[in-house]
Amino acid sequence: MKHQSLEQLRTIAEVSPDDLRPALTRSERLQRWAELLERQRDRRLATLHGTEYQPPDRRAEMRSADSPLTIAFEDPILRADGLGNDTYGEAKRYFELSDWQLHEIVCYCHLGETMSAGSAAKRVRSAMNAGRGGLFARLREAFGG
């Protein structure tokens, strides 16, 4: 790979400030998803059936029209940042979630056939906070230890 300065690139390509925008962090992606859901908090969204029982390759392809994953994929900012579709596997990759975390957000076994977007937002926020470690890790951080 040949490295070139920004000025060198401008001589061979049109470079705009949008092209230089850094990618969103995991927290920013999850925050945006939660906010999108909260804007429509009463909207009924479809859940995914039995994510925990599917083999990994089949689970990765799972999707449901009008699910919490669809809300994320409808957002042009998340798509521009790299969200490729509204499947379980793509959401897991893009939002950097574990199977357990994504299961908690989208699986029907918790809320039935549909859920409110507000409920999904709470679950996304819970996944954001889950990566911060257990109680003792949070206390250690709080008290500088």
What is this entry, summarized?
This protein has 145 residues and is mainly α. It is built from ten helices and two strands, in the order H-H-E-H-H-H-H-H-H-E-H-H.
Secondary-structure blueprint:
Blueprint: H1 6-12, H2 26-38, E1 44-46, H3 56-61, H4 68-73, H5 76-81, H6 88-95, H7 99-106, H8 108-111, E2 114-116, H9 117-130, H10 135-142
Helix pairs in contact: 2-9, 7-9
Q: Largest sheet at a glance?
A: 2 strands, antiparallel
The portion of residues forming beta strands comes to under 5%
- The secondary structure category is mainly alpha
Number of domains: 1
Determine the fraction of residues in helical runs and give it as a percent range: 55-70%
Low-confidence stretches: none
* Structure annotation, total helices: 10
Distance between the termini: 43 Å
Averaged pLDDT, please? Answer: 85
Shape: elongated
Radius of gyration: 18 Å
Q: Spell out the helices and strands N to C.
A: HHEHHHHHHEHH
Report the count of strand segments.
Answer: 2
Order of strands, widest sheet: 1-2
